[in-house]
Design a protein that fits this description.
Protein name: Diacylglycerol O-acyltransferase
Number of helices: 13
InterPro entries: DAGAT
Number of strands: 11
Organism: Linnemannia schmuckeri
Radius of gyration: 20 Å
Distance between the termini: 36 Å
Enzyme class: transferase
Strand content: 5-15%
Pathway: Glycerolipid metabolism; triacylglycerol biosynthesis; Lipid metabolism
Length: 332
């Protein structure tokens, strides 16, 4: 592969790169705009009013987001999906009279597949699963970033807190949530050619399913870990310990990674053009329990869920992960 992108490039590919750049740069653009507005004193009353509203009155992150459908439907997100490209594989229908908890695996570096599938209509989720209204749950910290918070709220994102998840699941038929189960810890294992999942320790979404009676839907993204190169860290290294400290303090961390640039292919923050196949499995129906679930109930349902994830891997690994360097592992 040449180092630099050709000068003569189909316009469609330029649009695809622009679409991905729009998402990748959203935080930087939002903060830049906010601080730029702060440089004008006559705008300070508006800035103060906005921050007051955000900090004291706006409950949208805990109330299922503030979805604006035309933003989710923009042609931009079709270009986003075509960049890699991404493909949605549907294993079964979902009853719109029920509620669902989608467990997305793996986290990858930035969970590109999760956003494209559930935060936009880039893969026509609403047409493939009519009546299902997914909300992509993310860290509360993301809703503390001016303007960016409003951007992701408009795409149907909401806080991953327990109260927020329960509110969304109890907001009527079809209302569903998406949790990237492995979280920040799993992102540190996002090595190309591998699929190491942090799942054994994750019982929160299992308990949520039992408490609300929402069905579990395992979702496995083949290729998510191939979008970036990662500089592996030994668990005894100072870098790894620093990343763990950041995660403990702020709730998130990022591995040392490398992608590609806008005009060259070797270095940068853009993901590499690698195919991603998002397999949405058949639902695991859950009976609602009264009171607090027992340890036995939690681990029994967790085993069913893990078995379903492993079954998806076995069905599709030779087709969508032919270049893998190892088999799927559940490491934590």
């Amino acid at each position: 592969m040449p180092l630099f992108a050709p000068l003569r490039m189909p316009f469609k590919r330029r649009l695809q790169t622009l679409a991905v750049l729009t998402w990748i740069s959203a935080i930087v653009v939002s903060l830049t705009l906010f601080f730029f507005l702060c440089t004008y004193k006559y705008l300070w009353p508006l800035v103060i009013a906005y921050l007051t509203w955000v900090l004291m009155f706006d409950k949208a992150p805990e109330r299922g987001g503030r979805r604006i459908q035309w933003l989710r439907n923009r042609r931009l997100w079709r270009h986003f999906a075509e960049y890699y490209p991404m493909t949605l594989i549907k294993e079964g229908d979902l009853d719109p009279s029920k509620n669902y908890i989608f467990g997305y695996h793996p986290h990858g570096i930035i969970s590109m597949g999760a956003f494209c599938t559930f935060g936009t209509e880039g893969l026509n989720f609403s047409k493939r699963f009519p009546g299902i209204k997914p909300r992509l749950m993310t860290l509360q910290n993301n809703f503390n970033i001016p303007f960016y918070r409003d951007y992701i709220l408009a795409h149907g994102c909401a806080s991953v807190s327990r109260q927020s998840c329960e509110y969304s699941l109890r907001s009527g038929p079809g209302n569903s949530i998406v949790i990237v189960v492995g979280g920040a810890q799993e992102s540190l294992a996002s090595k190309p050619g591998t699929l190491d999942l942090t799942l054994k320790k994750r019982l929160g979404f299992i308990k949520l399913a039992l408490v609300t009676g929402a069905s579990l839907v395992p979702t496995l993204a083949f290729g998510e870990n191939d979008l970036y190169e990662i500089f592996s860290n030994n668990r005894t290294s100072k870098t790894y310990r620093f990343q763990q400290l950041v995660k403990k303090t702020f709730g998130f961390t990022l591995p040392m990674f490398n992608g590609r640039g806008i005009f060259q292919y070797e270095y940068g923050l853009l993901p590499r053009r690698k195919p991603v196949y998002i397999v949405i499995g058949k639902p695991i129906h859950v009976e609602k329990v009264e009171g607090s679930p027992t340890s036995e109930q939690l681990h029994e349902l967790q085993k069913l869920y893990i078995d379903a994830v492993l079954a998806i891997w076995e069905r599709y690994k030779d087709k969508y992960a032919a270049g893998r360097t190892q088999e799927l592992r559940i490491i934590e």
